[in-house]
TrEMBL record:
<dbReference type="Pfam" id="PF01656">
    <property type="entry name" value="CbiA"/>
</dbReference>
<protein>
    <submittedName>
        <fullName>AAA family ATPase</fullName>
    </submittedName>
</protein>
<feature type="domain" description="CobQ/CobB/MinD/ParA nucleotide binding">
    <location>
        <begin position="5"/>
        <end position="182"/>
    </location>
</feature>
<dbReference type="InterPro" id="IPR027417">
    <property type="entry name" value="P-loop_NTPase"/>
</dbReference>
<dbReference type="InterPro" id="IPR002586">
    <property type="entry name" value="CobQ/CobB/MinD/ParA_Nub-bd_dom"/>
</dbReference>
<dbReference type="InterPro" id="IPR050678">
    <property type="entry name" value="DNA_Partitioning_ATPase"/>
</dbReference>
Amino acid sequence: MNVLVFASRKGGSGKSTLAAHLATYIATPERKTLLIDSDPQGSLSFWHRIRGTENPALKHNPRDLAQTLKTAEKEGYQWVLIDTPPNKSPVVVEAIRHATLVIIPTRPSLFDIAAVQDTVAIARELRKPYAAVINGAPAKRHGEEAAIVADARGALNALKVPVWAGQITHRADFSMALAEGEGAEEFDPGSFAADELGRLWTAIDRSIKAVESYKGRGTRSAA
Ligand SMILES: Nc1ncnc2c1ncn2[C@@H]1O[C@H](COP(=O)(O)OP(=O)(O)O)[C@@H](O)[C@H]1O
Ligand SMILES: [Mg+2]
């Protein structure tokens, strides 16, 4: 079972948005998917009520995360996505403790990038793989990313923070889909929003496979 944790102490960076869109993208009958809304604000839970289906399933603010994850694994869940509150509370640390991969959404702005470092510090301390994802970016022009995105990427590289090579653009489709209780792919499968999400999913899936093979090597060399 793979656990993706969406974390950043900056509110509005896109944790809940990416968690909802990715969960709907991942959830198929072959890939049983659970969302855990660990933010007392409950944005994801609100979206899930509008959605009105159990695909993906959602649990709000579980008291005992470790137990909830154990049960999920027994129930055959393959993917768990945990949305966290915009702070550095014990809830965030506990979620990261259980992460296969920590995803740190960030807007391409100085203050957001400063906030990324706090989450990075927790992930590094707990020795968890993590990556920043640039969200809410201006659209590319003629295939070129905006200067502000290139600057953000440069700043993240200078901090030695791995950052996804793509971007999630600021698009009305992302918020309109959520208002309907949907993900971008369901809302409009041919859209740019759905395409970006598909690329993000491919990158995450690859990273997870790399983490697994790295762990596998570790086990073999220890044997
Ligand atoms: N790529 C995007 N395009 C358009 N709107 C976005 C995008 N990402 C986030 N938003 C909007 O920005 C607001 C904050 O995003 P949210 O996911 O709630 O942030 P967080 O969970 O990190 O606090 C929401 O209203 C959301 O719909
Ligand atoms: Mg949120």
